[in-house]
Amino acid sequence: MEHVRETTPATHPQHSKYNLLHDTMSIQYNTTQDDAAQLLAAETEADVTAALTDAPFETAQWKPLGGIENNYGIVENQQADPMAAMTELIVNSIDAILLKNYHERVGDEYTGDEFETLEAAADTLVDPDDEGIRLAADGTRDESVSLTLSDSGCGQPPERFEETFLGFLQPGKIKQEYEFLQGKYGMGSSGVLPFCGMQGYKLVLSASVERPEEWSWTLIRKNKAKDRYEYFTLGGDVSTFSGTVDGRSTGTIIKLFDYNVEAASRFTTTFRYRLERYLLDSPVPLTFEDKRGESPNAATTHGLFSTLDAYDELIAADQTITYDFEDSTLGTRDVRIVLFEDDATLDDLGSADGEFTHERGYDPVTVKNRHFVGGEKHREQAIFFAINGQTHGDQGRTFIKNRCSLPHVAGDVLMFVDFSDLDDSSVVDLFPASRDRLRNSHVGRTLKRELESLIASNDILVDEEQRRRQRLPGDDSDELVEDVLMTILERNPALQRYFATGDRIAPPRIRDATVGDDPDHRYPETLDLIETYHGPNDYEVWGPDSSAADGTSAEAEFVKEVPTGGQARQRLVLDAPNDFLARDADPGSVAVSPSEVVKSTRLLNGVLTLTLIPAENATPGERTSVRVEVQPAGADGETTLERRFTIEYVEVNDDRGRTRTEADAHGSAPKDMILPNTHPIHKEDWDSYDRAFDEDTVVQVMDYDDELDLHINMDAAPLRQFFTAHSLTDAGKEYVKRVYKTGITLYAVAQYMELHEEFEENDVDVTEVVSTAMRGTGQILLDQAISDDRLEELTV
Cβ(313)–Cβ(290) under 8 Å? Predict the structure, then answer.
């Protein structure tokens, strides 16, 4: 295949923005087309390494990238994801096409009045039929893939080649003159280098539209011995030649050798789907071409949004909400929520007797999960924060599942928050320069809190969550297991208390009058109300105003809302050691008045947590004054700390599940305690659940606010193996099943309560952790729970 053709240079018109030196410079080409063609034709980094032993590379002078020695750390720390890094190159190509068309259609000078946004510029400047970006794959399908990116953009002349393609900050400074361009950080071009095989090879070729067929080129490589990335020159000058490359006389071509990325073997499908999650909406079509194998194939996309449009029949609801994030930086944003149909519905539509028809004849469930919501990509990326169609940060489906209590719909939701009009300084506050994640900043935490509120109250998602939960097979709670659990709990008040409050079973208390060896900080000196709590080390303390609304001097009132049919947590700063309330010598105490409104008290890492419940016969709008006293306190332990606040009872707004007080009314548990809902699941129903069941699955745990569902696998391998190993009577089999379900329930709830409190404010899917951990417990439970004597009674 002909890559490079040598021609005689011609004279072409110029624009000053492209070539500031053309009038005074006469280029002297220092390489031929064969030199560049040899590298462009190379398929692997091994081919490149072999080529470097030939001329002109044997006389090369390698210069540090960006003109900075010891730049290795700068390059390596830019990007953590190869797809995000690849997107930066594509964005640079989009910018180059916009810039070319701007100067061709508008003129040399940019005043800032023509286009304020990329969208406005693209609508005027880009004709998708005339422009394009191509990403081609070659190499060995199973071992490596090398990627060639080519565009029809403005390109660069030799005198600007180094500062644009081989610099760190200068490219961004140039683009900052144009409001509608994206790549203003000037770091994206080198972000791909850490993912270019072992040697970091990246080939760059470019020719300006103002000087067609005058190509500049270089090869970048990693040099760990010198702690740097460096690029090839001849006598300190960038390599040049005259001709065409792959039929192109202008534009830019970049080749990345042995690019380390998942799904490389399925380039036009899986690779494209992953890249689309970073490139949501491109004004320029991007064509993927796989040149490996005997039958090359290709696919074209404008990003994830265009692919969503192509498969709109898979979508149950697609709505855009204008939401006020109540923050000066975040402002009011458009939030797009896409809810896909569940698998069962798509199976019905795709069946022979269903109504689903499509000219492509694809399987709807497979397409939905491969393209949009399946696998690791959706676990990491379900909520996208976008600027000009490029993902700058994200949150995974765990955020929707856990923080928003929507476990059944979380696997079928995509959300997009548009930050395109955010000013540059706010972008830096919200996203790092790598543009691949959300900063853990105050504004970032505010964004997540507001998103949680938006999602948890969205009618479409809440209604669909309830519908899917009701459709699950075997969703009638196992009352027999509840009866057994009640018997166990009634004879063990300490275990009952643990299920109700999470307070661990304490060892026998032996009073010791002596003081511990370390008397420092034995007594607290601070007791403050926490107004907003984000996590163990991230909260805001309430500060009462010094004057009332009418101007009189009065301490403001702190009001805590408590639902009449539920509960709420109020946290206070208490600078006491964790064992303050439970230590043997000189323990402290927390007294709350009225005591009936407090269900549990917990002290951990300087935070006192009160779980509040409504007083008997409480009605919405009613208020109750609460006093909290902690003693002993003060430097000498001779004082009492006190804080007051007010409870205001409100109506229960969430009807997705029973509250704790409703559970009491059903008579299913002692006062102040709710048992999990247990559901036996059999093999024929395994595929009906969002989370996969197989023979190794013992239980799948689902939580809904303060309600817990345990789906216990009655065809799990440990139970079936126990039946096979022992000749049990029919009554014996039922007894073993009851022991199995009861044991699984007790162990699963205990693990859940321990982990849920610890990771409550983190994006950790505790239900998945517990479900996985229970696989080990299921292996040993029956042999441990059923004695040999009892087993003999149960066998034939």
Answer: no
pLDDT at 569: 87
Question: Hey, what are 19's tokens?
Answer: 């070539």
pLDDT in tens, 155-209: 999 998 998 899 875 544 555 566 666 654 445 678 899 999 999 999 999 999 9
Paired tokens of 318: 């697609």
Task: Say if residue 121's pLDDT is above 50.
Answer: yes
Q: What is the DSSP letter of 597?
A: G
Indicate if the pLDDT at residue 559 is higher than 80: yes
Q: What angle, 0 to 180 degrees and rounded to 10, lies between the N-to-C axes of helices 730-758 and 717-725?
A: 150
3-class secondary-structure state, position 664: helix
3-state DSSP call for residue 601? strand
How far is Cα 186 from Cα 496, in angstroms, rounded to an integer? 61
Nearest Cα neighbor of 325 from 335, 315, 317 is 335
Question: Is the pLDDT score of 759 beyond 50?
Answer: yes
Which amino acid would we find at residue 625? S
* 358-368 average pLDDT score: 75
Q: Are 647 and 560 in contact (CB under 8 A)?
A: yes
Q: Looking at the predicted structure, is the pLDDT value of residue 644 above 50?
A: yes
For residues 627-650, give the mean pLDDT. Answer: 92
Compute the chain's Rg from CA coordinates. 33
Cα 782–chain centre separation: 39
> Structural domains in the chain?
32-262 (3.30.565), 311-471 (no CATH), 514-650 (2.60.40.10), 676-794 (no CATH)
Rounded to the nearest 5 degrees, what angle is found at the Cα of 453, between the Cα atoms of 448 and 454?
95
Please give the mean pLDDT across all residues of the chain.
80
| Residue 665 CB neighbour total at 10 angstroms | 10
Burial of 744 (0-12, 13-18, 19+ CB in 10 A): buried
**769: three-class secondary structure by DSSP:** helix
**Cα–Cα dist 675/659, whole Å:** 11
Say if residues 299 and 271 touch (Cβ distance below 8 Å). Answer: no
Evaluate if pTM is beyond 0.90.
no
Greatest pairwise CA separation for the chain in angstroms: 103
Work out the pLDDT band at 517, boundaries 50, 70, 90: very low
In the numeric block, which tokens belong to residue 213? 């067929």
Cα separation of the two ends of the chain: 78
Residues 6+ apart with CB under 8 A from 185: 172, 433, 435
Q: If DSSP codes are grouped into helix, strand and coil, which group holds residue 427?
A: helix
